[in-house]
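## tool: complex_structure
## caller: assistant
## args:
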Amino acid sequence: MPDFKKQIRQRLAKMNLSAPREAEIIEELAQHAEDRYREMRADGASDAEARRAAMEELGAKEFLAGELHATEHAVAANPAVLGSRARGPFFAGLGQDLRYGFRTLRKSPGFTAVAMIALALGIGANTAIFSVVNGVLLQPLSYPEPGRLLNIYESTQAFRYNSVAYPDYLDWRSGASSFAGMGAYRSDFFNFTGMGEPEQLSGEYVTASLLPVLGVHPRFGRTFSSTEDREGAACTAMVTTGFWKRRLAADPGVLGKNLTLNGMPCTVIGVLPADFRLSGSAEVYLPMETYNSVELRTRESHPGLRVIGRLKPGVKPEAAQAEVAAIAGRLALQYPKTNAGYSARVVAMKDDIVGGVRSTLLLLLGAVGFVLIIACANVANLLLARSTARKREFAIRAALGADRGRVVRQLLTESLLLSLGGGLIGLLLAGWGTRLVLAAAPANLPRADGIGIDPYVLLFTLAVSVATGILFGLAPALLGANTNPQESLKEGTRGSGGGKYRAEGIFVALEMGLAVVLLAGAGLMIQSVWRLWKVDPGFNPHHILTAQVALSPTVAGSAPRIRQAFDQMLERVAATPGVEAAAISSQVPLGEGDSENSYWPGTGPQPPQDQLNSALFYIVTPGYRSVLPLPLLAGRFIDRRDIVGSPPVIVIDQVMAKHLFPGQDPVGKQISMSEIGPITIVGVVGHVKQWGLDSDDTSKIRDQIYFSIGQVPDQFLPEAMAGLTMMLRTTPEPLSMVSAVAAQVAGPTRDQPVYDVLTMEQIISRSLAQRRFTMLVLLIFAGTALLLAAVGIYGVMSYAVTRQSHEIGIRAALGASRWEILRMVLRRGMKLAGLGLVGGLAAAFALTRLMAGLLYGVRPADPATLSLVVLLLGAVALLACYIPARRATAVDPATALRAD
Amino acid sequence: MENPAIDREWKKGSAELLILSLVEAIPRHGYEISKLIEQRSRGALRFHAASLYPLLYRLEKRDWIRGLWVEKSGQRRRRYYQLTPQGRKVLASQRQGWQTFVEAINLITGAENA
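## result:
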């Protein structure tokens, strides 16, 4: 068949018609000429005769243009449109591409909806996780020049980050020239009375230098002066905007008014800005030196003091590190008794805040990226299948002269429209997903209040959408545009195009592989959390209620009255119906915060600080073991005899017994502590996993010492009483007892609040929160991945069966049994799945290593988990292949062979 | 031009009427229209593609006929032309005019012969 199109195109060339119009005219006239040619040949004319007759139809060279002149109009210069060879500037045809893309997508709403939902899920999940990563890890701290802020700790062999002794801080501040300024703070609780309901407030003692170092200015009022930060100075206070609104009715005249904190009048001098948050939920701030305690005056105590320094401009953190370490070295020589073994360590403030969650968040970001890639692979497969159906369209365009790049561009425009649409929906989903993540996230997720959709998140979503569109659109576009027009126009719907099916296979294998990795990650986390749940904390955690209690300010300062108030409080609570036992302890197992003390074996003189042992120190009442039934391994527990005046005694745990007195009975042996002197060991109890179910075994300090509250020397009693926890064993469900217990604790003066009420089970659960959160999110991702991979392999196999129905028909006609056909289809599908599984296993081996730190009791490449994952995915893939394979066996040979 | 007796101007004047009549009952594509003109005129009338299609486009532009690409299974797509409501009115009035014209001509030419 002669190429009439060329002839016609030549005749139209000068008219400069719009490309689609030109293509239409060419197609119609060429058909006419071809019909004429065919007819002549059928009537027995020679090729030359038929050709001549057909050409006659097209008339003389100028004739057609002349005839068309009345109806057809030239278009404006340089149209870069489909089907033309014109190479205009890139954006020239963009509008047209977009219009055409919109039209194409609107014409197949089913495809568009499915693809957009898959992409919206993928992009939405990515945006949600990214907005968390952005808020927590990427956004700078809200202080001016936050890069210059460092946290400074005292460090020992056992603890890299220790709280700081106040005298040491003062020496650092006066001695370090790397810093423009240095400040310190210390969290505490304040009994707020005299204004409505009494309340236990979280607060901070801060040095006068702290807010200037951070660069924080009050909302109104002023910060502390150095004369106010002096021992014995009149109490002044700053409050947060939240507290000012909540309890002070946003009174604009609040400055100069008095708040009663711990029974002491404190003058309000300033209100902090609304977004200021130093740590936790502090609402009131007092000058450091109004913390009237011996703890602040000795280098021996490290009373939870945290130090922040602002580097001088241009000074490197390394230089500051060297300098504070040198100062600490001098102090260790100067005060060996208290400072030997202590050095100093700086860490960038932001790293310090987010360091604990960085690896978790990055892991989740990686995992959610996998989900998106799987979604992309699915959409790419949809597009491939569609591009087969649209083969004639591409072929006609190519035949009309559209170059390959032009078709690729059109297809990419379509996939970008899809991905941007998906991104837009994804953004809406992300707003909701972010709230979901935050609801599931551990309560101690740092900087959680900075999480949300901001311009960076929007930019991220846009970038991900564009990248996604290109990622899933490119392969189908290249393969789609690769069609040989003549082939496609000649053949029916049954196509060749092996490249396309190879690509589908690769996508399916990729999906399976990524699903293996995600499932392996989720499986390992499930195992870790499950194993942790089974770890024995060292006691029975059921039916235990814990609550922080504070004494009435009226008894503060007098040791006998403190003891009496505590005794009475315990008696009242223990008498409450439903309470089986009540006790008070200075620390709760697995709770937040810890308290250690130094000791040395025997009764000799105190060795230098760096040769002392450390032990967790529990100050308890005799009822402690009735609440928390620790096994008594030797001797006796603390009892009513152990009061001031009787010989000081302690009970130790089995870990300390084993390491201090291996193979001996520790009962009757003595150790010494600096504030108490020689102490006799009267009993040994089981070890409690204080540091957490997972990390206790590897902690540096595991020795545990129980000491009677009754034997705390009077001068230490006021501090020892701060932050005590009441622990109860209850008959009914513990939380049902809260109001009854709170009423008994409050006492006749009704000014002793109960706060931070938690059951022991909640405390254990909270200690696992971050892992459980990681597990939950990974599980959701893995489930999504599994579903998408199953849908992907099912879609490809169904399509393959449809495509091969001809071949299957022939086989069936030639006598292949149903079983043979079933096996043939299954084999193809499972080959793809197997390829993905093997690749996924290799990737899982490599990638699960990155989550080693999050695992407990299971190795990253745990063979059991990986085998289970492979079995599960293999089964799902088999099922996904089986359904289309079953359909293949139902192919009727006659119908299949007739189909073309 | 097969029959010199029917000259180009004659054809042009009647072409619109011919096409409108042919697509009155069912939509037809261009080649079909040209074949029908040739067959029904027993070869007296023939339109080449180069004349026919510009004419079709002109009628389409006047909204007398409408061309639609139709794809039938197993065939390449073709453009089928069908009469629009306006085309139907035009056809009726052209038919009427033609009839009157032919009768008038017949009256004159036949009268001389009779």
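## assistant note: The mean pLDDT of chain A is 85. The two ends of chain A are 24 Å apart (CA to CA). Handing back to user.
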